[in-house]
Amino acid sequence: MPDEYVRDLRVVAGVLPFKVNEYVADELIDWSAAPDDPIFRLTFPHRDMLPAPVFDRMAALLDAGAPRAELREAATAAQRDLNPHPGDQLEANVPTLDGRRLDGLQHKYAETVLVFPSQGQTCHSYCGYCFRWAQFVSQEELRQALRDPADLTGYLAHHPEVTDVLFTGGDPMIMRTDVVRRWVEPLLAQTPSVRTLRFGTKALSYWPQRFTTGPDADDLLRLLEQCVAQGRHVALMAHFSHPRELETDQVREAIARIRATGAEIRAQAPLVAHVNDDPAAWSRMWQLQVELGVIPYYMFVERDTGASSYFGLPLARALDIYREAVRGVSGLARTARGPVMSAAPGKVMLHGTTEVAGEKAFVLSFLQARRPDWVGRPFFAAYDEHAQWYDELKPVSFGTTLPAYAGEQW
């Protein structure tokens, strides 16, 4: 790459995390098309991922040979301005046990608890649009990490309403299998109310060898089989951003091996500029998923954090892309719901547009919500061709309001 690009990379990587591995570089990126190759855009920094004033400030310090401490101080200030934990995650989602805050757990919806195992808070490679980017920077106070599996089982003992546990990160599949066992086996033995174990992972895209030729790949598959044999539903929540990630022999073998354990694979990703803002890419990706036995699950909207100004798209454009993409596949691939925003009040699905009382409006509903009685109830927002996120929407003028979460008030 040109020296100018390498300098830009160093500037951006001083604020937002950057990591790539051999598999991504050798198997997924078409270097003849770089820097416009979609997988290159997915993983390698671009100067526009930072607001111009932040980029210029960091570049000036780097060019001047500023001391490491000064660079770190500037990066820390920039990171705090990039909304590191969107959706009130730390303010509203973190539960307590016996009066003690359990950082590393999130309990937003009654049925589901998210777990951030401390050993799984990295990934094989990083997506530039990752909304968990704060897990990978040097500010400890921004990270979510649970160190003791007993805190998880202890919390669940007081919450029998929880049926699903989702291991997330980072990427739990970065952990050795013996570490995964230390988190999973207590759930099998002590929490019969938990019926579904989910693992949020990008490993199938970025390191499918985790499930094939890795040193403990067979042991991991035996653990999945063990969970299924004990009556648990096991789901790998795979993160596929582009159809190219499904085209290698390695990933296809990994998918087949996982499915042979009785576990299922569901696929989700955000719709983002420069990577997959093309209906044909989504149609192709969903079709490949169905052929390989993967269930298309969500098309998300890029969250309002990190490099969202670079990767984000207007909701109106996202709706057009989803509708055109879903028209290109059969019913078996239309299980993918979208566009969906994981906003502070809940998961908001954009169904389409309509006209009410002479006013053009978005039609939305909650797939999940902090208030369960909101789920499935349609509501309207004034049509805005520029809005990219839930907080930017405004009520329609004919008297309704937008659901909003503010502390304990709804």
From TrEMBL:
Residues 73-93 are annotated as: Disordered. GO terms for molecular function: 4 iron, 4 sulfur cluster binding; catalytic activity; metal ion binding. Its cofactor is pyridoxal 5'-phosphate. This is Lysine 2,3-aminomutase. The keyword Repressor does not apply. The keyword Phosphoprotein does not apply. Keywords: 4Fe-4S, Iron, Iron-sulfur, Metal-binding, Pyridoxal phosphate, S-adenosyl-L-methionine. It comes from Streptomyces vietnamensis. The lineage of its organism: Bacteria, Bacillati, Actinomycetota, Actinomycetes, Kitasatosporales. InterPro entries: Aldolase_TIM, Lys_aminomutase/Glu_NH3_mut, rSAM, rSAM_sf.
